[in-house]
Specification:
The protein has about 325 residues and is of the alpha/beta class. It has 3 domains: about 120 residues, no CATH class; about 100 residues, no CATH class; about 80 residues, no CATH class. The protein is about 50% helix and about 10% strand. The protein has 13 helices and 8 strands. A hairpin with a 4-residue loop joins strand 3 and strand 4. Helix 2 packs antiparallel against helix 3 and helix 9 packs across helix 12.
Length: about 325
């Protein structure tokens, strides 16, 4: 019996003892549970339907591999260990969903095709430096980007740079007319002495939006913004980009008001902040921001209120009103 268990069986060119096969099977089950959780998180967060279908297709492939491996190793399938996550619903793509994705791929030769085929490959220029307020970072300009992106790597396969390019394209429809994107730095926050727990940041002094390259997949972004229910207004993969750009929008509006009325920056900032505070106070509810925008907006700092509102202004009337108050030049 022991000799039989120690006799290796082969799967896809690799040999496994019974013990090794059982361990590999458990790892497959863990990966499937993780994929199911990602799918549910994406569904709850309002992710791009095509991204959800792709994730479902991944799960379906994992199930097929699991079944084939169990059969080759002569092991019983233990899918109940996968289903113990308690999640309900369909986690594999339907034929209709797959057909719709295929149709969209054939129709759209820009954004989705690039994502599906991973055709965007960063092409880097010469090394330079950017400030952070703490120290300078050595970076490379992404020469073939549609945006002003720099990164602290010149790796053509950088997932963080490619994801940033894709998501910046997607947020265009959510931005106000005439809004100009700043320079975007995709860098490792920890190694560059930026806040290692942050996913992004915008510096008014440098005029740069910083994206933490640690979060190099949409799934990682989802996990970050959904750790605590109600913490952030936008719970999609676009949240960090829109939030940080909301800070820039606030600072831009302050500068514009100061120039329009020939007053100091601080005076213009007080005018805008007063408008927003007065509007919130008029609602006569101490939980107004928490209930209508997010917990993060409830810091009472207008730059954060604006940033959170900016991230959902296209589908939240309260957020839209706050952005309107911030942008008024009267």
């Amino acid at each position: 019996m022991i000799a039989e268990e120690n006799t290796p069986k082969e799967y896809l060119g690799k040999k496994y003892t019974t013990y090794e096969a059982l361990q590999a099977q458990r790892k497959m089950e863990t990966r499937m549970r993780k994929t199911r959780q990602d799918i549910r998180l994406m569904q709850d967060g309002g992710a791009d339907p095509q991204d959800i279908v792709l994730k479902k297709a991944k799960y379906q492939g994992q199930m097929q591999t699991y079944k084939a491996f169990a059969e080759a190793m002569d092991l019983p399938e233990q899918m109940e260990r996968v289903y113990q996550d308690g999640l309900r619903g369909k986690f594999t793509p339907t034929k209709t969903e797959l057909a719709r994705v295929e149709k969209n791929v054939a129709k759209d030769q820009s954004e989705f095709v690039q994502y599906m085929s991973n055709s965007f490959r960063p092409r880097y220029g010469k090394e330079g430096q950017i400030p952070t307020g703490v120290a300078n970072i050595n970076v490379y300009k992404v020469e073939n980007s549609e945006f002003d992106i720099v990164a602290d790597t010149n790796n053509k396969r950088s997932m963080a740079v490619r994801l940033t390019e894709k998501n910046l394209r997607r947020i265009q429809k959510y931005l106000p007319e005439g809004f100009e994107l700043p320079k975007i730095a995709v860098v490792d926050f920890k190694s560059n002495r930026l806040s290692p727990t942050a996913i992004g940041g915008y510096s008014e002094s440098t005029g740069i939006m910083y994206i933490n390259s640690k979060y190099d997949t949409n799934e990682k972004i989802f996990e970050f913004v959904n750790r605590s229910t109600g913490r952030f207004a936008n719970t999609t993969e676009l949240a960090p980009y829109l939030h940080e750009l909301g800070h820039k929008y606030y600072y831009d509006c302050v500068k514009s008001l100061a120039k329009q009325h020939q007053i100091s920056y601080n005076a213009a900032q007080k005018v805008i902040d007063y408008r927003v505070y007065r509007y919130i106070a008029a609602q006569k509810s101490e939980n107004f921001l928490r209930e209508n925008i997010s917990q993060y907006a409830d810091t009472q700092k207008v730059t954060e209120i604006c940033a959170e509102s900016f991230s959902v202004m296209k589908n939240n009337k309260i957020a839209e009103k706050i952005i309107e108050l911030v942008s008024q030049e009267e």
